[in-house]
Amino acid sequence: MDVLYFAWVRERIGIPREAVDTQAATVMDLVDELRGKEERYEAAFADISALRVAVDQQLTDFDAPLSGVREVAFFPPMTGG
Amino acid sequence: MRVAVQDAAFDFGAEAAAFAEGRAVSGAVVTFTGIVRDVDGGLQAMEIEHYPGMTESALTDIASEAVTRWSLEDALVIHRHGRLEVGEMIMMVATAARHRKDAFEAAEFLMDYLKSRAPFWKREITTDGAEWVAARDEDEDALTRW
Q1: What is the predicted ipTM?
Q2: Pathway, per Swiss-Prot/TrEMBL (chain B) (predicted)?
Q3: What is the residue-averaged pLDDT of chain A?
Q4: Which of A70, B101, B140, B145 lies 20 to 30 Å from A17 when distance is taken between CA atoms?
């Protein structure tokens, strides 16, 4: 699936998006997998409460299932307007 | 109902006039615009990042909800992204309803949801460097009244 990063999450990880081959059942499982990859992921995901997640472009929670999902995005709380 | 996500500047007066023109049923049109402001004297510009695709659908969902909840005749949301200088307009909303209370409330609802449910992130470019604007608890708390 495609994994996208925005704002300081993108800066910490160093790329805006990547294709990830994963069998993770939930968003949290995916986060744990990514954390184990490299230090830059650990730095980005150190505090989950400081992050939001969208699955197929819908805001959701970290316990959301990933079955059939094409796109997951991680970002800090939004600051529009 | 119209939602626009764009890097180009918009003409607030022209947009507001076009939105208000020819309304026979709407007795009230409310408009709001947000402007890049320099609070501490060091801000040079604001950079706004967004999530192409999700931004448009999130704004459409928020605007549709406002139209339904307040029986609006129409709603408009324009939000810019990219680099904006101090004094430039970031965004605007407009609502049209039979009565002013609905138009005002719907506009406030749109603004509150834009702040923390639409995927935009602001980065302040100051003389000291660049920093992401942190979300404020008050913005999240503002949603509870709806």
Answers
A1: 0.94
A2: Cofactor biosynthesis; molybdopterin biosynthesis
A3: 96
A4: B140
